[in-house]
Amino acid sequence: MEPLPLPYLLCSLLILLHTPTSKSQPIYVNCPTEANYTANSTFQSNLNLLLSSLPSAAAPSGFYNTTVGRNGADQVYGLALCRGDVSSADCNACLTTAAQDAVAKCPRGMSNTLWYDNCMLRYSNNSFFGIADSSFWEYMWDGQNVTDPQQFDDQLGQLMNNLATKAAYGLGRPPLFAVGEVKFTSFNNIYGLAQCTWDLSPADCYECLMTNIGRIPQCCSTKMGGRIFGKNCVVQFESAPFYKLAAPPTPQSNGTSTVTPPRPAGSVQNTGKGGSQTRGKDTGGKSKSLSLVDSPHCGICYWGVVGNSN
Ligand SMILES: *[C@@H]1O[C@H](CO)[C@@H](O)[C@H](O)[C@H]1NC(C)=O
Ligand SMILES: *[C@@H]1O[C@H](CO)[C@@H](O)[C@H](O)[C@H]1NC(C)=O
Ligand SMILES: *[C@@H]1O[C@H](CO)[C@@H](O)[C@H](O)[C@H]1NC(C)=O
Ligand SMILES: *[C@@H]1O[C@H](CO)[C@@H](O)[C@H](O)[C@H]1NC(C)=O
Ligand SMILES: *[C@@H]1O[C@H](CO)[C@@H](O)[C@H](O)[C@H]1NC(C)=O
Ligand SMILES: *[C@@H]1O[C@H](CO)[C@@H](O)[C@H](O)[C@H]1NC(C)=O
């Protein structure tokens, strides 16, 4: 059964809500209301413990999953994942915000998932580690249309399929993450990202990514950018760089002026946190972000909600 898309134009509202000094807002919160915990219960204190521990536990590597509590009914399972190209400091900041938002955005909820540009946080009283669940998905798209949809789709498909393989089976660092670009026109590239939570097996990661890539036509047909995010994996593409590029491999340079060759079309790379990626002032890469709250061209970006089944 395919749930109906319910697009909302939220931009103006979000701009009103978004003050420049506020911390980042979640892109989406999935808070099913069927299961609520009672105030001051053991579950609540377990959840608080989980939320207070996840950011610092996940920040160094970019991922952490843990369980708090012994008793089945009071146990809470949680995981935190940062986008593979963000620094530990940014990871920690994003997850700290997520942990603070979690209860505020989902009072008494026993299960909750929050997505941000740089991270996601999920918890539940039910064990979900290692369980691929592609039934739930959300999407966003860039309102600009591509001029040559056929060529764009061909290139995009090639890029995203490569990224799914690279993320799932590439054995890069961080795991289950890949970014890359493909030439679209002589002066335009398409940039893509694929990432899974680390509790998935490579095969489940690949399956999750391909499922969401297969949703791109539904979500973002002819659009210059799109993002599909689920509980286990995220795919994203845009017409401008939106991830922090890994430092190019140091050529056997002896200090003479070397012209860095452009990366070949269709190149796919895993970006690690290691090495010497420079953190700029955090402006450039955001200019084409699809995030409603961060996007400078929010007047033409839309928000879609699909399949809120869980
Ligand atoms: C859980 O709490 C939410 C918000 O407080 C409420 O809307 C919902 O009806 C509650 N669910 C149950 C099953 O009580
Ligand atoms: C929970 O604990 C707080 C602080 O101790 C208290 O103010 C509140 O009344 C308690 N709520 C319930 C439902 O017991
Ligand atoms: C984290 O997830 C893995 C993969 O499913 C699982 O084997 C492990 O037990 C989990 N860790 C904790 C602390 O629950
Ligand atoms: C989680 O909570 C729901 C709703 O209260 C309940 O149906 C389910 O059995 C709980 N899961 C566990 C593992 O206790
Ligand atoms: C993009 O194309 C769609 C369908 O062809 C059209 O409805 C929409 O207005 C276009 N959007 C922009 C920003 O041009
Ligand atoms: C640097 O390396 C290039 C190529 O190996 C060589 O031609 C050049 O002479 C070197 N320059 C210096 C300053 O060592």
TrEMBL record:
Q: Please give the chief subcellular localization of this protein.
A: secreted
Give every Gnk2-homologous domain span: 25-128, 134-242
Q: Which InterPro entries match?
A: CRR_secretory_protein (IPR050581), GNK2 (IPR002902), GNK2_sf (IPR038408)
Which PROSITE patterns is this protein grouped with? GNK2
Q: Where does this polypeptide localize?
A: Secreted
Signal sequence segment: 1-24
Does Repeat appear among the keywords? yes
Q: Which protein are we looking at? A: Cysteine-rich repeat secretory protein 38-like
